[in-house]
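Action item from last meeting closed. Structure (199 res):
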């Protein structure tokens, strides 16, 4: 009987172009609020220091394809010749237990999950989507150069992708214009608290 009255958790989806500061804000949100990241699955090899079940679920291609066939993914995509995806159980189980979950995901993946949530009796109304965007493309370019992790060609490619991603911002419930890390976190936390109070 108690389980019917227990409030289920919310799924917070955060997207934004590379360099918008979304990963920094996600990390800070998890430190300050009772929310954990959804661990996505991938077929790429672990990078130095990455651990299975903590950073990603690392699967081989055959296992990943088997899970696709079994309908176990909410969404999946091929990025740079590797599969990436979000397994249904990694979303549904925590939410049923009353826990909030966070998904830092690209625009395409967010679109798929939002569409599927609309037709899912359990997830409908439980997805809160937030888009973080740079004040302008020049600022984004500055941030990408400052990171010092990408080549000139890669920065150019990321800026092209960013301009396409910015066209999708209207499909998100909340849009934040990134300022400083502190200001972004304040805005995200305000959304987090108001959405929790509403639900």
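Sequence:
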């Amino acid at each position: 009987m108690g389980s019917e009255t227990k409030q289920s958790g919310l799924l917070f989806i955060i997207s934004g172009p590379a360099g918008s500061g979304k990963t920094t804000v996600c990390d800070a949100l998890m430190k300050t609020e009772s929310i954990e990241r959804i661990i996505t699955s991938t077929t790429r090899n672990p990078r130095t220091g990455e651990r299975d079940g903590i950073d990603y679920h690392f699967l081989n291609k055959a296992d990943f394809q088997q899970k696709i066939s079994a309908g176990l993914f909410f969404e999946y995509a091929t990025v740079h010749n590797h599969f990436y995806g979000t397994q249904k159980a990694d979303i549904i189980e925590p939410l049923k237990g009353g826990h909030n979950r966070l998904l830092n995901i690209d625009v395409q993946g967010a679109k798929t999950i939002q569409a599927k949530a609309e037709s899912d009796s359990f997830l409908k109304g439980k997805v809160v989507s937030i888009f973080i965007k740079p004040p302008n493309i020049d600022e984004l370019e500055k941030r990408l150069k400052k990171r010092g992790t990408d080549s000139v060609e890669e920065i150019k490619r990321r800026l092209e992708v960013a301009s396409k991603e910015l066209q999708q911002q209207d499909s998100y419930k909340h849009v934040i214009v990134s300022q400083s890390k502190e200001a972004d976190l304040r805005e995200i936390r305000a959304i987090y608290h108001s959405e929790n109070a509403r639900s």
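Note appended to the action item: Residues 10 and 196 are 8 Å apart (CA to CA).
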